[in-house]
Amino acid sequence: MMKTRILKELKEAGDYVSGQELCEKLQVSRTAVWKYMNALREEGYGIDSVTNRGYKLLSMPDSVTAEEIGSSLHTKWLGRNFRFYETLDSTNLEIRRLAEEGAPHGTTVVAEKQTSGKGRRGRSWLGDAGCGIWMSFLLRPQIAVENSSMLTLIAALAVQKAVMEETGLRCQIKWPNDIIAEGRKVCGILTELSAQMDELNYVVVGLGINVNVKEFPEDLKEKATSIQIETGRKVRRAPLAARVLEYFEQYYEQFLKTEDLSAFADDYNRLLVHMNQRIRVVRESREDFYISRGIDHKGELMVEDDAGRKTTVLSGEVSVRGILGYV
């Protein structure tokens, strides 16, 4: 999109860039450049224009539009087919709809507001406007169906690293799909798949990141937090979303080489919030107590019971809780 390309040029210039230079680089007329600049101003961008100097980007809105994320993005394929919605029932559901219509690998959907978001094990995940990153993307991997669950763990690593680099907030991971800051959930991940017998059709990876949420309802205060609450400052969402996509693409391509987590297990276990801690493993109405020993190369959680017997737990069948609270 031309508007995305112009915005990227303005961001990378850091100073005034001449209209003539933009015309030559982007192969458009000066009138077209002027129209795109006005369109960006209407979207909340502060753009100065000075005769004989050109245009300079002064300020940016905290938006997660295709132009804003796209102009910050450095990926080969993830997010290159991008759709933004002001309001959407669920980004995961929209990716499923697009996948059934033949959307390509790497298609990404972001919503400013999400009304019927889904969490793991059937829980709801609502996303209000202006305060989070509600994002899902489509993968069409040539991998075994049983290995697809590991993509959740890859996504967790990508989010953790992106949050740390963009905001300075050091987070941990609660196996298999939550990012934790100061003992509370700052991001949830939901991976869903479509398969026939042993053949994988596609995978949907959905992320809900609490970025600029100022407060939570009483029933969630002990379980949930946001980047703004933990850092004390508002964070621009688009660069963070772009960084998550960049790290996921990088980790995903590394994962494809082995179709396991052998390259990631050590890093993951260093970030595991309940590593070597006593945990509750809840299977429907049954509870068991173990010591968490980290993940293995298949992404399964290794646990040890009171008698010293070791076993593994599969992510699809359980919920893991700390002894005293959420983690």
UniProtKB/TrEMBL annotation:
Gene Ontology BP annotations: protein lipoylation; regulation of DNA-templated transcription
Reaction catalysis annotation: biotin + L-lysyl-[protein] + ATP = N(6)-biotinyl-L-lysyl-[protein] + AMP + diphosphate + H(+)
InterPro entries reported in the protein's UniProt record: aa-tRNA-synth_II/BPL/LPL (IPR045864), ArsR-like_HTH (IPR011991), Bifunct_BirA (IPR030855), Biotin_CoA_COase_ligase (IPR004408), BPL_LPL_catalytic (IPR004143), HTH_11 (IPR013196), WH-like_DNA-bd_sf (IPR036388), WH_DNA-bd_sf (IPR036390)
Source taxon at top rank: Bacteria
Keyword Disulfide bond applies: no
GO cellular component: cytoplasm
Domain BPL/LPL catalytic: 70-256
EC number: 6.3.4.15
Catalytic EC class: ligase
GO molecular function per UniProt: ATP binding; biotin--[biotin carboxyl-carrier protein] ligase activity; DNA binding; transferase activity
Regions recorded as binding DNA: 19-38
Keyword field: ATP-binding, Biotin, DNA-binding, Ligase, Nucleotide-binding, Repressor, Transcription, Transcription regulation
Classification via NCBIfam families: birA_ligase
Function: Acts both as a biotin--[acetyl-CoA-carboxylase] ligase and a repressor.
Family: Belongs to the biotin--protein ligase family.
Name recorded for this polypeptide: Bifunctional ligase/repressor BirA
